[in-house]
Amino acid sequence: MEKKQYTEEFKARVAIEAIKGEKTANEIAGQYGVYPMQIYDSVD
Fold first, then answer.
1. In this structure, is residue 2 part of a structural domain?
2. With contact defined as beta carbons under 8 Å apart, do 41 and 14 qualify?
3. How far apart are CA 2 and CA 14, in angstroms?
4. Residues 38, 29: contact at Cβ < 8 Å?
5. Tens of pLDDT along 5-44?
6. Are 25 and 39 in contact (CB under 8 A)?
7. Is 3 within the bounds of a domain?
8. Distance in angstroms (rounded) separating the CA atoms of residues 30 and 12
9. Domain that holds residue 24
10. pLDDT score, position 4
11. SS3 string of the chain?
12. Which of 11, 16, 29, 44 has the lowest CB atom count within 10 Å?
């Protein structure tokens, strides 16, 4: 199984969404098709 590669633009969009604080990590993860832990990792 190959690891998914995400563009910098995609990562930035997800991180900005998380920083806004309007949605939970689970909501953002569902919207973008990633795991909630990846959201936390991108913001740290």
1. no
2. no
3. 21
4. yes
5. 899 999 999 999 999 999 999 999 999 999 999 887 766 5
6. yes
7. no
8. 16
9. 8-43
10. 83
11. CCCCCCCHHHHHHHHHHHHHCCCCHHHHHHHHCCCHHHHHHHHC
12. 44
Tell which residue, 27, 28, 23, 22, has the closest CA to residue 10: 28
Q: How many residues does the chain have?
A: 44
Residue 22 lies in a domain: yes
Q: In this structure, are residues 26 and 32 in contact, taking their beta carbons and an 8 Å threshold?
A: no
Tokens representing 1 are 């199984």
Instruction: Count up the domains in the chain and report the number.
Output: 1
Which two structure tokens, joined as six digits, stand for 21?
């604080």
The closest of 20, 17, 37, 19 to 28, measured between CA atoms, is 17
